[in-house]
């Protein structure tokens, strides 16, 4: 539960600046929550990188998952497991330590799929996409904290981003059934990049203002998925650009 400021803790809270002008909760508690979320997010990324790198650097793993029936079945089992675990995390997000166990399983599943998505991509593209993802995430995070401090609110982005995400999913399905040209595919990837940049701003704003203190798992998942999807869209666009240059 959020703790409002009162006369007894004004002096204590006054030592820590407000995150946004209309803030009524104790800033120290909110900063503690934010630090916890980013610590969890960092742990997820530190787990994701070696798992994804293993899939990428050991080609037989990707070949097995893509070119064999057993691997195909295992790949789809990983996807289904990831979705089931994600649903379970929403249900049990406040039950410790089960929430952390589910988060670890979800992170491993996502890391395997990220590694597989990058398996047949050049190392140059992967490195450039990783650097761009880190820079974009850092810049958008700092901007959102700066904007919130000055009274800006990004909650209005929610409906637009959700509608855009649904449109991206539908368009992706259409591309599977009716493949379009390379230029259209690149535009689709660029739109995806913009959508997930918007989600980083929106979810960071939610982290600053609206998440309850016991929703740290949900907050970390949102930011983690924003980062992964942004990275994969950057890889997709840069891969298309590289193939166009080589054509």
UniProtKB/TrEMBL annotation:
Q: How does the protein associate with the membrane?
A: Multi-pass membrane protein
Mark the transmembrane ranges: 37-57, 69-93, 100-123, 129-148, 160-178, 184-201
Q: Which GO terms describe its cellular component?
A: membrane
Query: What superkingdom does the record give?
Result: Eukaryota
Subcellular locations according to the entry: Membrane
Recite the UniProt keywords alphabetically.
Membrane, Transmembrane, Transmembrane helix
The reply to whether Membrane figures as a keyword in the UniProt entry is yes
Q: What is its main location?
A: membrane
Which InterPro entries did the record assign?
Bax_inhibitor_1-related
Q: Of which family is this protein a member?
A: Belongs to the BI1 family.
List the PANTHER family hit by this protein, alphabetically.
BAX INHIBITOR-RELATED, BI1-LIKE PROTEIN
- The protein in question is named Uncharacterized protein
Q: Which organism is it from?
A: Rubus argutus (Southern blackberry)
